[in-house]
Each structure stands twice: as structure tokens, then as C-alpha cells.
Amino acid sequence: MSHVRKQIRDAIVTALTGLSTTGSRVYAGRSLPLYTGGGSIPSELPALCIYTREEQANYADGILTNAPLRELTVRVEGYVDGTDDDLDTIAEEVETAFFTDYTFGGLTVGAELGEQSINVDREGDDQYGVIVMTFNVMYRTAEGVPGTAV
Amino acid sequence: MGLLDDHSTDLTAVFYDTARGFAESASKEDGTSVSVLFDLDYLESDAEGTVYVSSREPVARFQEDDAPTKGEYVVIRSVTYEVVEVLAGGTGETICRLHRAP
Question: Could you give the CA distance from residue A12 to residue A7 in angstroms, rounded to a whole number?
Fold first, then answer.
């Protein structure tokens, strides 16, 4: 059984796949550049990249527990060759889908909106923009049993 | 004859002569065809996400008298570009930074 963090990441990929703007171009943990197309190779934009690389365990108020609340930072990045308006469209679609079932099938106990930022780069042959959306997702696992959400 | 005269002469006779292989044809908005030295270097566009976007950096060099103005469109290699920046070279050439037209 995989770590619950991976199960959550996979569930988020599923929830965010098929949105109107980004479609099936959803990548978890991507590190390679996104291709803008050319010749017979299609563009990979607009796209979503999803990262779950930061997490904190919260042993509430010093009370010992064997199932601490884990606070996972989910980073969803939307990439587009376009404008701020296009990036806000992506944000509208992602937030709607993200909170349709914020437990992601019972894996998590809650989710909150985090910071969002937009940046645009005009150095290349087009205007490329990124919206970075963070979500704080809470879940619990028993110590030593990271593959099962409780 | 000064160095700049030599340079100017060479521009027309050598570098911007498409038959010699350095230059290629471009079409301007008014339909005229001009010679252009075109670079399409690879560029990793960084809009401060985790990954880069693989992009290109199209730059065209025109002889001064042929140069388009900012905002004008040119067609090079069957792709339409908008001129987004014009830099006077001062030696008979004008350098234009381009964006793919929407």
C-alpha cells in the first residue's frame, strides 16, 4: 500500500483531470519543461502540475496521540500561453473541482485555500503565464502506519 | 572607403543575399518581400513555476531600409510574427524581437 500522501496526490490528479481548459494535461511531480509544440508534436499547454512536497505533523496542544493531524501543502500550478484572464479561468475550474469532494474519497479530513500568485514571462516567442495555487489538506495516519488514513 | 562603408557594402552583397545562404525571405504587412537574418534559439521561459516552459526566442535582423516598425507583422518560414521590439543597430542593420502572432 502506498503512502496516504501519494494516495491523496493521485486522487487530486483524478479530480483535476478533464477540466475545460487543461483537459488531460495534468502532471504530478513534473520536473521537465512543458513543450509548447512544433512540427508534429502537440503543445502541452495549457497544463496543470501538481506537487505535494511539504507537510507538517501537528501533535495538538502537546497531547500525545498516535494519530497526529498531518497538514499537507498541495501546490497546483496552472501554465498557459495567454493572459491573467486565462489563468483566472484555470483557478476557477481548479478550485471548483478541488472542493467538490474535499475528502478525496475519505482520505482527508479537511482542506483549505492557501496562497495564490500569478506571474507572466514575455521573454520567449509568446507570453507564458503561471498561476500557483496552494491548498492546505489535513489528514491523519497512525504512527508507523502511513499507508492507511484514519 | 571606411570600415562602415565596407560593412554596409558587405551587408547587401553578402549577408543579405539569399543566394549565399545566410539570409532568407520574409514578407511584410504591405506584401513586400525582404531579406532577413533569422535566429530561432531555444529558450526556457521562466514564469516562476516549478518547471520551465520550452520556448523559442525569434530575432530577425533587417537592413535598415527594410526594417518593419514595432507592432507590424512579418511572415518568416510560414509563421506570422509580431514585431515587439525594434533595436537600431547603428551599422546598417535593425534588430527586431518577435512574438508569434495569436
Answer: 9
